[in-house]
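Tutorial, part two.
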Amino acid sequence: MDKTAIRHAATVILLRDAKTKPRILMGQRGKSAAFMPNKFVFPGGALDPVDSDVVLAHSLSELCMTRLAKETDPALVTPLILAAIREVWEETGLLLGEPSDTARAQADKVPPDWFTFYAQGVEPSGEGMKFVFRAVTPPGRPRRFDARFFLVDAEQIIGDLDDFTHATDELSHLQWIPLSEAREFDLPFITEVVLAEIEADLENPDRNASIPFFYNEDERSMFSRL
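Running the prediction step on this input gives:
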């Protein structure tokens, strides 16, 4: 029996030039990484307990919040959105939020992991974020995550879309990859599945499909919708 603890996580698909030549932001994990070494991935990571101690300026749409809460502890819904925003900042140096005259003054009052975010004069916001996918890492992996995927138009980013100078070194080769070329990179299987959902949404923006949920039960891979 696999006893690896499953951690809640958030992943973000940043989409640029959606109506012309869609591009998505991805980076490469290090070769020594315990989870998905060398793979090109979207920015994201595990939920941090301190994400519950930060205020979200704006939530997602009512429909997305309802879907995000399905089969989930309600207390995790807003922290998961905050984790997504924090991970984007840490791994790419890009800000998802809204300018705030009081944010810098709050920087010394928020948890340390959020200090540099607030120091930019920005408060985290889920405005424009869309919950699009959920997947649980299969048994037998060195690390397992219950990951929620969020799609965000790059127009929601504050500042230069190509400025990664504030990023940590967790992801290398950060780049905006044309959606049509993404599968030429070394991707995790679940990332390829997510890409198919994104392409379907772009082809039919009004389809408003339910959220795919991949998980494992009795050592079998299962699929449902939220």
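The radius of gyration is 17 Å. In part three we will examine how such features are distributed along the chain.
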